[in-house]
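User: I would dearly like some help making sense of a protein record. I have put the entry right below:
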Amino acid sequence: MQVIASLSSLYRLTSLAVLKVGRVAIITRGRYAGKKVVIIQPQDTGTKAHPFAHALVAGVERYPTPITKRMSKTRQAKCSKVKPFIKIVNYNHLMPTRYNLELEGLKGVLSNDTFKENSSREEAKKNVKKAMEERYTSGKNRWFFTPLKF
């Protein structure tokens, strides 16, 4: 029993070192279970509002659909849309991957104050959507924009 407790504490310590800014993770619980997210702002120690280790993440709620050659330009533009979400997630509900994703400019846009007002939250989601769609259309990080198959 002692060995299992020490292994779980060792896992938590190593996962804290892995959960850095830009790391791609998968949410394992809740409404967005199985969705890919990128960590924007990790918080190893809790705050007053969230007294546990957590991270501010931005993820893909609805992935872009595949594009074929015979699609028109307007149809391709419609299929390339990404529906993002932003959320504060407990570290226990994140599974880190080996991938990193650098979304430039999102660190300044998203913060814990973003969640206080609904209008600021919607504005932040628009900025995240714009950044993710730019990343998708440029052809970088294709793995991030494909749904998990399980």
Notes: Residues 5 and 11 are 10 Å apart (CA to CA).
